[in-house]
Amino acid sequence: MCRDPRPRLECPEPGCDIRLTAVNARNRARHLRFVTTSKCDHWIPRGGGGPESAQHRWMKTRLAKIVEHLGYEATPEHPPTHADVFVHQAQFCLEVQLRETSFTKRTATRERADARVCWLIGDDAKLDSPKLRDALWNQPAVRFRVVDDRRPYAPGPTPWHQPFDHELNDHSRIQVFANVAFRASERPRHIPADAAGWFVTASMDVEHFLREVLDGSRRYYQPGVLARRGLWARVKDVQALHGIQADRTATETTIDVPAVTEPTAPTPWSAPSQIPIATPAPRLSPESPRTAPWTVAPASHPCRTEPRLVVTHERDRRPWWRQLLPWPRR
User: Fold this and answer.
1) Which end of the chain lies in a sparser environment, N or C, as judged by fewer CB atoms within 10 Å?
2) Cα 234 from Cα 223, distance rounded (Å)
3) Is the separation of the CB atoms in 176 and 120 below 8 Å?
4) How many domains does the chain fold into?
5) pLDDT of residue 13
């Protein structure tokens, strides 16, 4: 196709006579280009590029109208930044993407032009692509879907295929989700050290989202600041989180040190003046009468007022065979 003279190339779709030409670029992949200003939307490549689809054009037009309704100046297909919709007062680029592309490279190009970026990725885009997953986790991006406000839970409408159905266009709303963070009001005040549990993600109308983003009350926070992925959060909610974390850190680092007191001298030990000595009980002599097996001994302790009983057993001096007799001894 690149030989001279180049052959005549046309769109392979039956009935389409749009002319094409082959481009053999050094720094880009070889591709086909439209010769005239007329274009068609047949045979759109999967990896990006090609003419814009009807959904892409409808999204650009709707976003430009929403931005102008908010009081800003919007320019679709801004030449200096190549943005789908450029907001002049806020220096903001709104990019609609329905398939994978070089998100990191294109974001850096717009940031070098002193412009911020917000990627709006369609909900029908498959997340099995590493570039799309990386864009949702590490790039300032959100996902969007189109819903009918009369039937919010019905399958999404396709107003781009019915441009003359004005009622359908009036009731079609754009919702953004995936990375839109809100403060979880039902959470207690004693939160963990990180932001886990402080923010939750939910869907939001794109008009309210753009109003907060363009006036600066909602901004994008890089991955690792609030969560493992990047989040679009309100500035006042993040400030409240940081204030509570600072109060907790100050409370945990405060240590109560007890007052230092002079040590008191120990009380010197003194020996008691009198030590009571117990008097041993008198022993019975062999000549003492054996009237009872026990004797009464006087009180030997100074605190004891009553006499104590001392039991003494008499030794049986009979022969062993007599001790076995059943009758009593005499």
Assistant:
1) C
2) 16
3) yes
4) 2
5) 73
For residue 163, the enclosing domain spans: 44-250
Q: Identify whether 216 is part of a domain.
A: yes
- In this structure, the answer to whether residues 210 and 70 fall within a common structural domain is yes
CB 135 within 8 A of CB 121: yes
| Cβ atoms 316, 290 nearer than 8 A | no
Q: Are residues 162 and 51 in the same domain?
A: yes
Q: What is the pLDDT of residues 111-157, one digit of tens each?
A: 888 899 999 999 887 777 788 888 888 999 999 999 998 888 888 88
Same domain for 20 and 48, yes or no, is no
List all residues 6 or more positions away from 257 whose beta carbon is below 8 Å from its beta carbon.
none
Give the integer Cα–Cα distance in Å for 269 and 281. Answer: 34
Q: Which helix (H) or strand (E) holds 58?
A: helix 54-69
Give the pairing of strands 204-205 and 141-148: unpaired
53, 87, 171, 175 from 156: Cα distances, Å: 17, 27, 11, 11
Burial (CB count within 10 angstroms: exposed 0-12, middle 13-18, buried 19+), residue 198: buried
Q: Are 36 and 62 within one domain?
A: no
Six token digits for residue 252: 């945990």
Domain match, 94 and 216 both: yes
Instruction: Determine the residue type at 24.
Output: N
How large is the greatest C-alpha to C-alpha distance in the chain, in angstroms?
A: 158
User: Against a cut of 0.70, is the pTM above it?
Assistant: no
Judge if 148 and 108 occupy the same domain. yes
* Cα distance between residue 232 and residue 181, in whole Å: 6
Best CA proximity match to 124, nearest among 181, 56, 57, 221:
56
